[in-house]
Structures are given as C-alpha cells and as structure tokens.
Specification:
Largest sheet: 5 strands, parallel
Structural class: alpha/beta
Shape: elongated
Oligomer: single chain
Distance between the termini: 80 Å
Strand content: 15-25%
Strand order of the largest sheet: 2-1-3-4-5
Number of strands: 10
C-alpha cells in the first residue's frame, strides 16, 4: 500500500478550468487503478488540484475512455490491472497516430531497472514506483502538465497560421487564393457529378466615396460588415471570399440560373436593407452583383476562368445600368 500524506488545503496544482467553466481534456485526468482504496486516494488528490477525474478499475475500461472524443490527455495507469495491463494500454495509446499527444504516468510496485525500461519502451512518459507520497506525484504531474500546455499552445498557433493563410485578415472570410481554390474544387466536383455550378461577383457600390468622405477606417468597417452579411446569407455549402478590394466572390454549388438569381437578390437585399453602423454614423451601402452559371454535359464543364470572366462582365453591366442590381 502506498503511503498516504494529507495534503494541506489550498496547495493546488497548476491546472485550471477552461473559460466556459468546464474542464477541458488538458485539465482532466484518467486514473486506471484496480485497488479501490488507492484509486479513491488518487482521485481525491487530483480533485484538490482542480482536475476533472475519470477513475476506472481496469485497462479495458481505460481504453474505452481514451477513445472518446474529448478524452483526458493525462493518464495515470497502474501496471497490474485485470483485462488489460498498463504496459499493453501504453502500447495501444502510442499505436494511435491521430489526436493530441497523451501523457502517460505509469504506477507500479515493480522497482527493478528492467521493469522501468520496459515501461518506458512501451510508451510511458514517466514511471513512479509504489509507495510514493503526494508531493512526489504532484511534481511528476506538473512536469507532464507543462508538456501538455506547450502542446496546446503549439496547436493553437498552428491553427492560427492555417486560418491566416486561407482567410482575409480584414473580413475573416476566405481570401482570394482560398476562394479560387474552392472554385476549382467545386468545378471538378460538378464535372464528375454532371451538376451545375454558379458564381456571383459582388462589388460594393461607390466604395471610394465612402473612403474619401469618412476615411479608410470607416471603409474597413463597411467591408467587414458587408462580408459578414454575405456570409450569413448563404447556405452552409456555399462559399464567399474577398476577391480583391471591395469585390467579393461567391461560389454556389448546384446553382442553376434561376436559383443563382434568387440567391443573388437575397444577398443584394441583405446588404441594402439596413445601414451599417460606423463611428461616422449609419452608412447606407449597396452592392452590384454579376452572375454566371454552367451545367456539366457528360464530363465537360466550362473552366473556372470562363465563369469568372462571365460573372465579371455581368457585374460591369449591373454597374452600367445603375448599380444596386443583379445581372446575369
């Protein structure tokens, strides 16, 4: 039996709840221990350290927990357990390539050097020999938590870089490169499925006048809100990106001529019906929209460049005919 040391109240570890008040997987721990008394002791320690605790009595139950969508990233495993021992559980954890890294602390009464080597080679990150006291466990857990926190920070940084690479910094919708890639992909998909594909080119009317009258910061607010209104008015499988300046490109899979015209008119009204609140006061904004659509015949579909050319030509027609209108 391990030594039990009473922990002073308030001597908490570093993990904290997530912003929404719930423990995230980094602030949670899986305890797999077949001794019910020692399992309850471990559970009480980790709860004092602000961890959400999942405690099981065998390796099979632990493996089931670890396959969950938001499974704990920290696992404290006993070596000797029924169903599946800690060594086999470590091997299974390391055999899975997907998902975030899981930090594994292996507990055992075995104190032979070869046993320690076997545990580490099976995939354990750290090894603690029974009996141990709470301070020793807490120090090992803090070391593991630092690694998991570093991993979480790296994942957030990678996600931010991926977002910045594909999204327009001002409007937070797809950037030019990303929306053109989406158009190319949808063109190929429509070709394979003998489907239709529509594109809409939208341009903010008299945008230079907004910048000249109210300044570029106000103009930025206008572009942000126009992008938001366009994006919020589309279906989940439609896409909108900032094509350049005050021009937006919308890709509409399955959009035949009639449906595309209905979609474009909905977008026009969504922008025009409500003034945009800015630091210079409410500003009424309209957009002109040009449409182009194509239907695959056999394995043939017009190239994306032709769709863009035709939509751009329709946009110029809308501008020439008075703006705040849709032309095909």
């Amino acid at each position: 039996m391990s030594k039990v040391q009473v922990e002073p109240e308030g001597a908490l570890g570093v993990p904290k709840p997530s912003r929404d008040g719930k423990a995230c997987s980094v602030d949670a721990v899986l305890i797999a221990e077949d001794d019910p008394i020692f399992r309850r002791i471990l559970e009480s320690w980790f709860k004092r350290w602000d961890y959400a605790v999942i405690a099981v009595e065998n390796g099979l139950d632990a493996w089931e927990v670890l396959q969950g969508e938001n499974a704990p990233q920290l696992a404290v495993l006993d070596w000797m357990m029924p169903g599946m021992d800690g060594i086999e559980l470590c091997r299974r954890i390391r055999s899975r390539d997907q998902g975030p890294y899981r930090y594994v602390l292996l507990l055992t009464a075995k104190d032979d050097k070869q046993d320690m080597i076997a545990g580490l080679e099976a995939g354990a990150d750290d090894y603690l020999t029974k009996p141990f006291d709470v301070d020793e466990l807490r120090a090992r857990v803090r070391a593991g938590k630092r690694i998991l926190d570093l991993q979480a920070a790296l994942i957030r940084a990678q996600g931010a870089l991926r977002f910045e690479a594909s999204h327009d910094r001002l409007t937070a919708i797809w950037n030019r490169g990303a929306i053109l890639d989406l158009l190319a992909g949808e063109t190929e998909r429509s070709r394979r499925s003998n489907g239709s594909l529509g594109v809409i080119m939208a341009d903010v009317d008299f945008f230079k006048q907004v910048n000249d009258t109210h300044g570029h910061l106000v103009g930025d607010v206008v572009l942000q809100e126009v992008g938001r209104r366009l994006a919020s008015s589309l279906r989940t499988y439609d896409s909108v990106g900032r094509y350049g300046g005050e021009e937006f490109l919308i890709v509409v899979p399955g959009g035949d001529a009639l449906n595309l015209a209905v979609t474009a008119e909905r977008l026009r009204r969504r922008v025009a019906d409500q003034p945009i609140d800015t630091s210079a006061g409410p500003i009424s904004v309209t957009v002109s929209l040009g449409l182009a659509t194509a239907q695959a015949i056999g394995l043939r579909l017009v190239a994306p460049e032709i769709l863009l050319r035709d939509a751009d030509a329709a946009l110029y027609t809308a501008k020439a005919r008075g703006r705040n209108r849709v032309e095909t």
